[in-house]
Write a structure and sequence with these properties.
single chain, about 190 residues, Arc Repressor Mutant, subunit A, two-stranded antiparallel sheet, 9 helices
């Protein structure tokens, strides 16, 4: 079952989503995630378990939905005065966020879920990647006259190494290395 993260429901649906999200966050602060069940979340949120099963499917989808909501950007990427500077600033902020214990857990929740929704043409759109890609596209659009790199190159050469290291428990990319990744992506695109 696909979670409803991409939707911004109103009324009763919004209240249910808020209650379930708040309950899941609260329970995650109090217990190990392996101990948390749909009936526990439902009781804490004041809804029936069937409401959660119908809307999210299982507890992993609830955790992923909560994580995706937290990963949704609240503002456009910072402007620094250059394409390179904007990419470095955004990538460093993204790395800082995903490198924390909470950030690692959020990425894992999303990976364990069906983080997708169908588009009008029937293809799947992955919400986590979409959030990231929108931020990258804002930067590239901002510097359209100078942008020698495209969104796929940014994902392949900047985002992918950071996410890989975080997900597989390697040391995260060192903060100083973010600029190197950006420089390498820009150099590859220019060649």
């Amino acid at each position: 079952m696909t979670s409803s993260t991409g939707l911004r429901p109103g009324g009763r649906s919004a209240r249910i989503q808020q209650a379930v999200h708040a309950s899941a966050r609260r329970l995650l602060e109090q217990r190990d995630r392996a101990e948390i069940t749909v009936p526990m979340i439902a009781a804490d949120a004041g809804v029936t378990p069937s409401t959660i099963y119908r809307r999210w499917g299982d507890v992993n989808e609830v955790f992923a939905d909560v994580s995706l909501e937290r990963m949704r950007p609240e503002a456009p990427p910072r402007e620094t005065g250059s394409l390179r500077g904007d990419l470095v600033a955004w990538a460093q902020e993204y790395l800082d966020e995903i490198s924390t214990e909470v950030g690692r857990a959020m990425l894992r929740d999303v990976v364990m879920s069906d983080d997708s929704s169908a588009t009008a043409d029937g293809t799947k759109k992955f919400k986590c990647a979409y959030f990231c890609r929108v931020q990258i596209d804002v930067i590239l659009d901002r510097w359209a006259d100078e942008a020698i790199v495209d969104g796929d190159e940014v994902v392949d050469h900047i985002v992918a190494p950071m996410v890989y290291r975080v997900l597989f428990d390697l040391e995260p990319v060192a903060p100083g290395r973010v600029g190197v990744l950006v420089d390498q992506a820009l150099a590859l695109a220019a060649s």
